[in-house]
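Risk mitigation, structural track. In case the binding assays with phosphoric acid mono(formamide)ester fail to produce interpretable data, a predicted complex structure has been prepared as a fallback.
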Amino acid sequence: MKKDFLKGTELTEGDIYKIFDLTKKYKASRKKGLFASILKNKTIGLIFNKPSTRTRISFQLAIEELGGRALYLSGDTIQTSRGETVKDTACVLSRYLDGLVIRTYKQEEVEEYARWSTFPVINALTDILHPCQALTDYFTMYEVKGTLEGIKVFYIGDGNNVCNSLIILADILGVNIMVASPEGYQPSKEVLSLVKNKELLKIDTDPFKFIPEADVIYTDTWVSMGDEKEADKRRDIFQRYQVNEKLISQAKDGFLFMHCLPAHRGWEVTDDVIDSQNSIVYQQAENRLHCQKALLHFLYK
Ligand code: CP
Ligand code: NVA
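Fallback model:
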């Protein structure tokens, strides 16, 4: 049976650690110039209805370095932009391709593609979830810390797609996660209803409350793709949640700063924090490539 990666909930803790082991192997072998051929003779389409630097490039490279072919399908160049249904598109693409990586607005659209496709479908970000990001983020914490046991992750800012996916994977991995977001911008209720280990999740509106116990301080943009019209309003509402010198003055020594990128420097984070020794944002971005190779390996093997 085909395997999809739509919400992150498809994976067990054991699956995630298998993917982490593969990620380590793929990262080490790339340094030696060694590539695998798991996707030999396979073509995977990449449908992007929103911009992307990291996700698109890392998937394109991952597919090609696994011996496959990546076919980029910009959303405005295919007939869905003129009203062709997802069902018809998925049924037709199933006759040509061996997989789809999709970035779009509605989560339901990615799930609809998965429903009608005969191949694996991977969620490359929707308005409510970004599971590939969270998978890489926990790998990066694991790589840096050596273990996820006892780690406390603090997400500050908009309770958006990245935050929701960090919560879902924390629940599977048994990681403590604390969230500080303003009223009205907290994580999705639908996502919170999926959380089984409620004792591992704490949510508050106070940006300072969780800082002293955080091993990882994570933030993301206050204005996600699709929210641009609210930029000014959001800038005012979120100002207190900026990760800056004042906030981190209360943090533990050796905390890690993470951000999925792209960062809006001077908004959710100041230069002195994102450029500090505590920041691992470029390692995190690099790992998207290695971790997505491992995910593809897991889905196709
Ligand atoms: N973090 C992330 O998904 O970046 P892109 O939007 O550049 O893909
Ligand atoms: N929350 C951001 C993530 C970008 C990778 C957005 O959806 O725009």
